[in-house]
Specification:
By secondary structure, the protein is of the alpha+beta class. It has a single domain (17-112), classed as Alpha-Beta Plaits, CATH 3.30.70. Helices cover 32% and strands 28% of the residues. The protein has a five-stranded mixed beta sheet with strand order 3-4-2-1-5, covered by helices on one side. Strand 3 (67-73) and strand 4 (78-83) form a beta hairpin. The radius of gyration is 17 Å and the shape is globular. The mean pLDDT is 92. InterPro entries: BMC_CP, BMC_dom, CcmK-like_sf, EutS/PduU/CutR. Its main location: other. This is BMC domain-containing protein. It is found in: Bacterial microcompartment. Keywords: Bacterial microcompartment.
Length: 113
């Protein structure tokens, strides 16, 4: 008897949402090496859909606080910010407010480790 293979089809349906807003304060230096980004006091991580929103978020973040863009991918909606802890938190908060109030997105609470 022939074994049946199960086929799984995944469908990606983007919403208007910020799904992750996290600050890593004083990360282990190995993270900077692995990510290939400049070492600072904090790393901020955002994940957004639709994915192109990462571009808007990067613009808002860099205008709101003294942060750098460590990584931006408009195809996955990933944005990594670097800077001082307070600046990264301020930048992420500004992104949250803009997306919620201006673009009517669902936003995520800012978490920290």
């Amino acid at each position: 008897m022939e074994e049946q293979k199960m086929r799984v089809i995944q469908e990606y349906v983007p919403g208007k949402q910020l799904t992750l807003a996290h600050v890593i304060a004083n990360p282990d230096p190995v993270l900077y090496t692995k990510l290939g980004i400049e070492e600072r006091s904090a790393i901020g991580i955002l994940t957004l859909t639709p994915t192109e929103t990462a571009i808007i978020a990067a613009d808002i973040a860099t205008k709101a606080a003294d942060v750098g863009i460590g990584y931006l991918d408009r195809f996955t909606g990933s944005l990594v910010l670097t800077g001082e802890v307070a600046a990264v938190e301020m930048a992420i908060a500004a992104v949250n407010v803009f997306l919620l109030e201006k673009l009517k997105f669902s936003t995520a609470p800012i978490t920290r480790s």
